[in-house]
Structures are given as structure tokens and as C-alpha cells.
Amino acid sequence: MEIILIQDVDRLGSKDDLVKVKDGFARNYLIPQKKAIVATSTAKKVLAENTKQRAHKEAKLKNEALSIAEKLANKKIIIGAKTSTLGKIFGSVNTIQIAEAINKKGFEIDRKQIILPEDHIKEVGTYSAKIKLHKEVVIVIEFEVVAE
What we know:
Layout: E1 2-5, E2 18-20, H1 23-30, E3 36-38, H2 41-73, E4 77-81, E5 88-93, H3 95-104, E6 114-115, E7 121-123, E8 125-134, E9 137-147
């Protein structure tokens, strides 16, 4: 029996895959659990149209991410922190402060998009972080931590 998966199923396929399974598996498990639908000709047409529209939206999102990456690549980010006389920061610099500094420059970056190489930044200096703008667009941005 041919079915279209509605959600990801381990060892079978991911969402919107057209797969062939045994009749009993489809009728007794996948369809009642709302994990799949029967692949009728109408369902296949709907799947093809949805896939085409999703591809168009993905391309648009990727282009937007690339344009943001070009603009963000040349920006210098400076983060102020309270420090001791030795240059140690009281507390640490995290993704929240980096996101706020980037957002002040006019970009909309969520803290969950920022990946730091170290867990905590506890000293004054220049560091780099990865920003995941899209699943295929990741940029590295330099930022400097300075004493206030």
C-alpha cells in the first residue's frame, strides 16, 4: 500500500514522503495514529502542490537570510560589561546580551540563533560566534567585550 506520511516516522521516512508499506502496518498503525494518509491520486496532487509551494517559500526565506548575512558580516559588535581591575567580568556574557547588541544595530536576531564556541565568556577580549539565520545560512560574526 502506498501512503503519504503526515509526520516523521522512525526508520520509515520523514513528513511528506511517499512510501510503500504493508497493508496491515498502514491500516492498523499509521493511519489510525494520524501518522499517514492513503496515497490516492487526489492526495498525490495535493502533495505535489504543497511541495512546490513549500520550495518557493524556502527559497524566499533563504534569500532573505543571505541578504541579512551580507549586511551583518561587516558590522562591529561591542558589548560592555562590568569588570574587575584584572579584566575579569562579573558574571558572564551570553547569547542574550549578544542578541541585544545586534538588535540595536537594526537586525532582528533571536538569542536561540546564536551559537557560542564556549559556554561562558568571562574575560574582556574579542570573540566570535556563529549565527544561524537559516538551516543553510550560518555566518560567523566577531564581537568585542569591553569594560564599562
